[in-house]
# Entry
Amino acid sequence: MPWFKRTDKGILTPTEGKREVPDGLWFKSPEGKIVHTRELKNNAYVVPEEDYHVRIGSKEYFEILFDNNAFTELDADMESADPLNFVDSKPYPKRIKESQAKVSLKDAVRSAYGKMDGLDIVIACMDFSFIGGSMGSVVGEKISRAINHSIKTKTPFLMISRSGGARMMEAGLSLMQMAKTSARLALLDEAKIPYVSLLTDPTTGGVTASYAMLGDFNIAEPNSLIGFAGPRVIRETIGKDLPKGFQSAEFVLEHGFLDFIVDRRNLKAKLATLLRMLA
# Structure
């Protein structure tokens, strides 16, 4: 059972129907193109010709970015507690354990350090498959510790965001992570260490309102949904139709909130070039 179940009919959001990285031998794109998963992996999980970016997680991003997929993971065994004794359709600890068993992750972010095109780098990457990539105490703590490692080693920091926002099961404790991570990034800035934020599909809620938009460079993958509240909520609040492509990466770039959009196949080379320029 998903962590959130929509009961009303006829309510659609731009993220519904999007495909995660495939598990089988073949992948069918939204436009109907059939691609072998080996070809898809060799193309950085971008559908050839269509340029459709399949949703991927930390495992795939680490393979793409770290040289020879060699890295040292930080705080790998950190797990969420249940400070509020939260229960909705099931107890929060049970939901955590089920998610861990299903996706083989401890929580919604992984962090690690290693080499990228010969350059030292620290990367924190969110996994949408773990409770919608929601930001709880563990997510905030692991990102903060990754930033601390960047400061200690004077190493550039890359944050890859994909999230539905704050984790409702931790209420105010989840919202506190916005201030916590932002304060750590202020220390990174004081140390004059580069911070690049990569926004992927979708990046929303408290994640957008904090560390995802605080990069020295804010970049995104093509056609990613980027925003705070969803388009339906905004439309119902203001009572007006929204512009075409509202909250797409291209729309956000046009309105000055992104520095550039990068194809995932060029991501490693673009990041390495950018960091060498900054150095």
